[in-house]
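Closing statement on the glycyl-adenosine-5'-phosphate sub-project.
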Amino acid sequence: MANGGDLMEKLVSLCKRRGFIFQSSEVYGGTGSVWDYGPLGVELKRNIKDAWWRSMVHERDDIEGLDAAILMHPRVWEASGHVAGFTDPLVECRNCHRRFRADNPDIRWTDQCPVCGTKEAFGEPRMFNLMFKTFMGAVESEAAVVYLRPETAQGIFVNFQNVLMSTRQRVPFGIAQIGKAFRNEITPGNFIFRTREFEQMEMQFFVEPGEDDEWFEYWKAKRLEWVHSLGIRPGKLRFQEHSPDELAHYAKKAYDIEYEFPFGWHEFEGIHNRTDFDLRRHQEFSGKKLEYVDPVNRDKRYIPYVVETSAGADRTTLVVLADAYREEELEGETRVVLGLDPRLAPLKVAVFPLVKKDGLPELAERIHHGFRKAAIPAFYDDSGSIGKRYRRQDEAGTPFAITVDGQTLEDQTVTIRHRDTLQQERVAVDRVVDFVRERIA
Ligand code: GAP
């Protein structure tokens, strides 16, 4: 098995080769740490987001969905603390002018530029705000500055009263959202792990003050349960509590769910107790009351506390890819497999005619079409040896491969090969759609 760096290289290369992920604007030499999802990648990420939405919104009575805009009133980011506090300390090399995070231990302890090698390269750090700025309207003045949101959460806070008024929800309840966020990271990297444009899957759960600790524990357990449900190996997962100096400006308590990536243990989801910080600040800055009035006892009014679960859709995709990647020796060759959970796999089934004659391609095409009609993503392939066709699908993570052969003409059955066990079984042609459907639900 490959070591960490090797493994990442192999994963990046597989993602490009099979159409999962491409570098953005590659024909122009690429854009720094921005990635595009190709035909298989878009399906994989969508399946992850759909699994999240199902478990957080559709399967629950107490969470509503939302899709707030990326551009928000600039005062939102003053109230949230992002204008003043969403900063990283930055130093610049006096020779090559590359910039680095000053809290990177290599920079802090050596004072040597890792790019050009200049010694005593850095002066005093200065604070660098991570929010992208742009202008709204025709005039590019300070007054027209708006930000690309650095987290989706604020769209939820400013809509708290709207959701409350337009639904039958009562505290405790939550609002969930999936959407893009942008951060002008100083040192992005590790493929889709840290990028400047990414997607978050966030849920803010509004609770009565005093009940927040209990709900925090509830959501911590629930979120780990969900990650397990994606088939991620439990031994590769752990919780990591934020120390007081790591806590975000809004947080009373925070735990990360970390995965052991090829480049080490890192967070891909956080569970945060944000207290009433955000609603209180928006109430203060907007002048609008954002408190909750208990419908039974109307004298009971409070600003709810918020337990937040915040996952990166891209980082979760990287977790799923890294966890699924494996190499096996098979008949003297290396077989590369993405052992994706069938629910997440972009293609559910591939259909091959064993040979390109005797009416087998036509029959295989018909079976393939049957899957498409049933809205089950399927792939038809008649090029190259059957072994090569299997390998391509193993790399794409396709859980089932169907081969139409001579026997099919005699008894109307096909071979179904299972990606992980390599077991083959014969199934009647008119049963194959149900066979696959039952295994991807
Ligand atoms: N609303 C809270 C919040 O945004 P965060 O820990 O800053 O908390 C939550 O971000 C999640 O968003 C992270 O766990 C990660 O999965 C994802 N994320 C944050 N910055 C990212 C980046 N630059 N690239 C990719 N994903 C990122």
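The CA atoms of residues 212 and 305 lie 6 Å apart. With this model delivered, the sub-project is considered complete and its resources will be redirected to Aim 3.
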